[in-house]
């Protein structure tokens, strides 16, 4: 996996530490075996006095402590590597998602993205915390033990050398299957997460249309699919463990039998040598077996890493920003769209060659029938979607030559359904600013937005906690909270997407007054249907099927554009 290799190359110091701990562990294992063989040989065969053996016991205790420390330090290093890698993966995923256009962001289920960001990244942990430390140990420990056994008894070393390859052979055969099954599991988990989150978000709609039972069945099917994929991996894991145990047990048995023959029948071995080898052999095979278990987890992690890599590699429609800074003054710039085109999918709706200039402090309304491209044009203007053709210039410079943060400092985008984050009302108002703002400024913004009285009536005032998505707030209160953010931010460009749709007349009047106040020192571009809004702007852009059909004032379009006149007449008839 290129992503995993890249992460390993960035942690060379940790790899060197793991190799050092592996060498220390191998030395401790061999020393422990030699000391234990010396003690047993001395006490039971040579009948050496305990006083002479006691220093060896202290030495054995020290070696055991070194062995324990080596295992602990190796594990800690692996955990640190895993934590660093997961943090890096999540940062890269978040940066990639933040850099994606709005169109790309909405293409896939939110639950699937959350699954990759959380579950897939978490499952990369085993590769670094288990597989890599065990791989470093297996690189050194079996080789060092084999060299030591060769110096003591060649026959045993040859048996070890010929039986050891069976363990990595089974690891390779089983590991390939594990990687494939793991990829299937994460695909199932992504689908399950997406289905479950969609169902939660649309629960009321499902109940109203009597589709809750069908959706329940879909969730059940998705859950069973994930369960089956997980069980398939466990089957492979148990088969792998069984085969490794068989190989290890048979190999140790053959070596023990051969040593017994040499020791008892042929008397070609001393007890010390025979016992020393028998103490080392289990450590030799255990190192390989532990690698087999870790290898299974490592292959599963590779499946998870592949999902992360695929997500990072999907850079279609990603927006690349530049490094220029927009001047810090809150003076509205001149905005120019030149032959701007955008299309969601081939053979799908498209904005076609929109060309328009918007002067500083100008108030512009974008009008048209539903589906004519009003919100799409607003999203393109906001820099949330990059034009496929044409350019957007800000004071003569291409919009995407500027830094993303520099551009968004100068604009506010107020949608029909502004998002309210979990936290206090004060925090939600000041969320648009990176610098600390005073409570007086927050309260002033709330007064300007017409929500101060409502906040004061709450028990905790500006410290009142509102839920994720704005639970506990009405639609009008969410809109006013969003306007308060804009008053606090003081943007030079304000974008509105039908902010008063669905509100009662009193709330709409409050919002309209706040919007007029907010627009005094800014360029304002509004997607509008209400005749009141349209009549009071400087210029109107009329869209039809993604094309700019006409531009001008209300009076001009009433006389020059039959399409616009028909729209206004239809609205007047509804008001009657």
TrEMBL record:
<feature type="domain" description="ABC transporter">
    <location>
        <begin position="335"/>
        <end position="570"/>
    </location>
</feature>
<keyword id="KW-0547">Nucleotide-binding</keyword>
<feature type="transmembrane region" description="Helical">
    <location>
        <begin position="53"/>
        <end position="72"/>
    </location>
</feature>
<dbReference type="GO" id="GO:0042883">
    <property type="term" value="P:cysteine transport"/>
</dbReference>
<dbReference type="InterPro" id="IPR017871">
    <property type="entry name" value="ABC_transporter-like_CS"/>
</dbReference>
<dbReference type="GO" id="GO:0016887">
    <property type="term" value="F:ATP hydrolysis activity"/>
</dbReference>
<keyword id="KW-1133">Transmembrane helix</keyword>
<keyword id="KW-1003">Cell membrane</keyword>
<keyword id="KW-0067">ATP-binding</keyword>
<dbReference type="InterPro" id="IPR039421">
    <property type="entry name" value="Type_1_exporter"/>
</dbReference>
<dbReference type="InterPro" id="IPR003439">
    <property type="entry name" value="ABC_transporter-like_ATP-bd"/>
</dbReference>
<dbReference type="InterPro" id="IPR036640">
    <property type="entry name" value="ABC1_TM_sf"/>
</dbReference>
<dbReference type="Pfam" id="PF00664">
    <property type="entry name" value="ABC_membrane"/>
</dbReference>
<dbReference type="InterPro" id="IPR011527">
    <property type="entry name" value="ABC1_TM_dom"/>
</dbReference>
<feature type="domain" description="ABC transmembrane type-1">
    <location>
        <begin position="16"/>
        <end position="300"/>
    </location>
</feature>
<keyword id="KW-0813">Transport</keyword>
<dbReference type="InterPro" id="IPR003593">
    <property type="entry name" value="AAA+_ATPase"/>
</dbReference>
<dbReference type="InterPro" id="IPR014216">
    <property type="entry name" value="ABC_transptr_CydD"/>
</dbReference>
<dbReference type="Pfam" id="PF00005">
    <property type="entry name" value="ABC_tran"/>
</dbReference>
<feature type="transmembrane region" description="Helical">
    <location>
        <begin position="135"/>
        <end position="151"/>
    </location>
</feature>
<dbReference type="GO" id="GO:0005886">
    <property type="term" value="C:plasma membrane"/>
</dbReference>
<feature type="transmembrane region" description="Helical">
    <location>
        <begin position="263"/>
        <end position="281"/>
    </location>
</feature>
<keyword id="KW-0812">Transmembrane</keyword>
<dbReference type="InterPro" id="IPR027417">
    <property type="entry name" value="P-loop_NTPase"/>
</dbReference>
<dbReference type="GO" id="GO:0140359">
    <property type="term" value="F:ABC-type transporter activity"/>
</dbReference>
<protein>
    <submittedName>
        <fullName>Thiol reductant ABC exporter subunit CydD</fullName>
    </submittedName>
</protein>
<dbReference type="GO" id="GO:0005524">
    <property type="term" value="F:ATP binding"/>
</dbReference>
<feature type="transmembrane region" description="Helical">
    <location>
        <begin position="236"/>
        <end position="257"/>
    </location>
</feature>
<keyword id="KW-0472">Membrane</keyword>
């Amino acid at each position: 996996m290129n992503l995993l290799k890249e992460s390993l190359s960035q942690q060379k110091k940790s790899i060197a530490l793991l190799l050092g701990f592996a060498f220390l562990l191998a030395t401790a294992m061999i020393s422990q075996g030699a000391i234990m063989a010396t003690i047993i040989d001395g006490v039971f065969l040579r009948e050496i006095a305990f006083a002479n053996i006691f220093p060896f016991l202290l030495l054995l205790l020290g070696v055991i402590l070194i062995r324990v420390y080596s295992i602990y330090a190796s594990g800690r290093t692996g955990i640190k590597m895993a934590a660093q890698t997961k943090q890096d993966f999540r940062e890269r995923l978040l940066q990639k998602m933040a850099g994606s256009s709005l169109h790309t962001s909405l293409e896939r289920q939110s639950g699937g993205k959350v699954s990759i960001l959380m579950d897939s990244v978490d499952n990369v942990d085993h590769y670094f915390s288990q597989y890599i430390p065990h791989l470093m140990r297996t690189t050194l420990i079996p080789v060092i033990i084999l060299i030591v056994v060769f110096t003591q008894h060649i026959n045993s070393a040859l048996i070890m050398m010929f039986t050891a390859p069976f363990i990595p052979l089974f690891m390779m055969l089983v590991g390939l299957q594990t990687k494939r099954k793991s990829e299937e599991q994460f695909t199932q988990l992504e689908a399950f997460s997406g289905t479950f989150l969609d169902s939660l978000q649309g629960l009321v709609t499902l109940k109203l249309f009597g589709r809750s039972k069908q959706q329940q069945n879909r969730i059940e099917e998705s859950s069973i699919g994930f369960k089956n994929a997980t069980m398939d991996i466990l089957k492979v894991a148990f088969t792998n463990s069984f085969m490794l145990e068989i190989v290890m047990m048979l190999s140790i048995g053959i070596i023990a039998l051969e040593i017994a023959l040499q020791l008892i029948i042929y008397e070609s071995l001393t007890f010390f040598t025979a016992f020393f080898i028998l103490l080392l052999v289990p450590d030799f095979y255990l190192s390989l077996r532990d690698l087999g278990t870790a290898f299974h987890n490592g292959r599963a992690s590779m499946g998870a890493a592949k999902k992360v890599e695929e997500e990072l590699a999907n850079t279609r429609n990603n927006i690349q920003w530049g490094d220029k800074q927009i001047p810090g003054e809150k003076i509205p710039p001149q905005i120019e769209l030149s032959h701007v085109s955008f299309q969601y999918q081939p053979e799908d709706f498209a904005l076609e060659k929109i060309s328009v200039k918007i002067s500083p402090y100008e108030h512009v309304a974008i009008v048209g029938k539903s589906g004519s491209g009003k919100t799409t044009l607003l999203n393109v203007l906001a820099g949330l979607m990059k034009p496929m053709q044409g350019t957007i210039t800000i004071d003569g410079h291409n919009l995407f030559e500027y830094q993303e943060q520099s551009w968004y400092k100068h604009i506010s985008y107020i949608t029909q359904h502004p998002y309210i984050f979990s936290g206090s009302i004060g925090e939600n108002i000041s969320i648009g600013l990176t610098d600390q703002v005073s409570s007086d400024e927050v309260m002033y913004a709330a007064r300007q937005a017409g929500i101060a009285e409502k906040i004061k009536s709450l028990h905790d005032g500006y410290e009142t906690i509102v839920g994720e998505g704005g639970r506990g707030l009405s639609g009008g209160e969410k809109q006013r909270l969003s306007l308060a953010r804009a008053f606090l931010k003081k943007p030079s460009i304000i974008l509105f997407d039908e902010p008063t749709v669905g509100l009662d007349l009193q709330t709409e009047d409050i919002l309209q007054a706040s919007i007029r106040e907010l627009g005094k020192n800014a360029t304002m571009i509004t997607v509008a249907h209400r005749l009141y809004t349209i009549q009071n702007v400087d210029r109107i852009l009329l869209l039809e099927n993604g094309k700019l059909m006409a531009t001008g004032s209300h009076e001009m379009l009433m006389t020059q554009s039959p399409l616009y006149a028909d729209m206004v007449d239809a609205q007047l008839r509804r008001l009657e």
